[in-house]
Amino acid sequence: MTETKAAFGGSISQFYQTITIPKDMKYHLVCSGCNDVYFDDRMKCVRDSALLRTFYSKRQIELKNVSGMGRFHDWLPVNKIITSDAGPVTYKSTELAAELGLNNLHICFNGYWPEKGAFIKTCSFKELEAFPTVERTRGSGRSLVLASAGNTARAFAHASALTGIDVYIVVPASAKPRMWLPEEPTDSIHLIQMGKNCDYTDSIHLAERLSSLPGMQPEGGARNVARRDGMGTVMLDAAFSMNRMPDHYFQAIGSGTGGIAAWEASLRLLEDGRFGMRLPELHLSQNLPFAPMYNAWKAGRREIIKDLDMPNPKKLIHEMYADILSNREPPYFIGGGVYDALCSTNGTMYGISNSDARTAQQLFESYEGIDIFPPAAVAVASLIEAVNNQKVEAEDYILLNITGGGVKRLEMDYRMYRIEPAVHAENASVPLEEIIGEKVMA
Fold first, then answer.
1. Would you state the pLDDT for residue 76?
2. Among 13, 197, 222, 308, which residue's Cβ finds the most Cβ atoms within 10 Å?
3. pLDDT tens figures, 108-142
């Protein structure tokens, strides 16, 4: 039996009382819309479009004695413990905190900074998504297909190089400078670069077509619970580091999946009972001028209206400082998506200008002593705005998610290898045999 129905209108504790979970199962999936329960791995509910959420049999997490994200194995949807050193690292800020007048600012650094114990060698928290996803694919005999604006591509390519799992990665031309690895690329990495007039959303559409072929498996995007729970380890690491959940959580978003992941991890920590009884407020930011979720939220709408919220999107994306934060079809309105996460946490959205992001980047790097990516700078700028507008107080416990950084530090220890495209695709409608060959099509 793969599906059952649960009446879920109250707390998670009440929900657990409505179903019987097989004793030998580590987790099961629940639709955040209709509350159907599934005991098999899938991406979608049969009844609606809402996100499926993972419910783990261990309601109190016990850390494993390993390094990296594998410590949080109890709340990752994989059976084998992930042994990579990559994982989030939370520390209490002193310099930046003093500059902003904050007494409990904690930074979760997701990148390469060995002096802090941070060993994400692709320098992005997308690596937290890649390893659980690849581990779930192991043994299936299928190749993973995904789209990326850059950091996700690098993370999955890195995981592929280490595991031998075949990945087909579709990227826009703008992602080319981000296509590097700290090791030589392997034959298991198949990079497909799109034409210069295509953006991330075009890459998503081509990846969807590729994933429908025999032997291919869609990575799943926001619907992939392995991705979300992998990113959720940021909140878990912070909770154990702080011995409580934060009052406020700051992150820049493109699709918003990381914000959803932080919310879901907080719900589990709430149920755990040891880390507080109040959900952290989500402070999510987008980079102007392309900020569809910010525009919709500011207008009080659950729906994103294209003509209002992202007119002439490709032009706007080209003008962004952190263009990697661009997604024309984010999981904003769907059940369990960004809108619900913001409502559940009494959250806030920010629209950050390019100039404010650059200023924030310089401020962070000068005080904390490590280089960061533009998306992380957008998050720093939103924290500065929140402080200036008194949305946070000096004694509040604040978690700032630095989603990527440490490239300059990585270059001191590793040689950087370019990932060359296996093939080019001018648009999302090209014949698939031109992309992967007629033999594969047959």
1. 98
2. 222
3. 999 999 999 999 999 999 999 999 999 998 878 89
For residues 199 and 218, state if they share a domain: yes
Q: Encode the chain in three state secondary structure.
A: CCEEECCCCCCHHHHHCCCCCCCCCCEEEEECCCCEEECCCCCCCCCCCCCEEEEECCCCCCCCCCCHHHHHHHHCCCCCCCCCCCCCEEEECCHHHHHHCCCCEEEEECCEEHHHCEECCCCECCHHHHHHHHHHHCCCCCEEEEECCCHHHHHHHHHHHHHCCCEEEEECHHHHHHCEECCCCCCCEEEEEECCCCCHHHHHHHHHHHHCCCCEEECCHHHCHHHHHHHCHHHHHHHHHHCCCCCEEEEECCCCHHHHHHHHHHHHHHHHCCCCCCCCEEEEEEECCCCHHHHHHHCCCCCCCHHHHCCCHHHHHHCCCCHHHCCCCCCCCCCCCHHHHHHHCCCEEEEECHHHHHHHHHHHHHHHCCCECHHHHHHHHHHHHHHHCCCCCCCCCEEEEECEECHHHHCCCCCCEECCCCEEECCCCCCHHHHHCHHHHC
Domains: count for the chain: 3
Q: How confident is the model at residue 6 (pLDDT cuts 50, 70, 90)?
A: very low
Half-sphere exposure of 318 (CA within 13 A, CB side): 9
Tell me, yes or no, whether 281 and 406 share the same domain.
yes
pLDDT tens per residue, range 272-286: 999 999 999 999 999
Are residues 206 and 287 located together in one domain of the fold? no
**Is the model's pTM score more than 0.90?**
yes
64 part of a folded domain: no
User: Same domain, yes or no, for 180 and 303?
Assistant: no
Check whether residue 168 and residue 305 sit in a common domain. no
Which range is most confident: 11-15, 39-43, 356-360?
Answer: 356-360
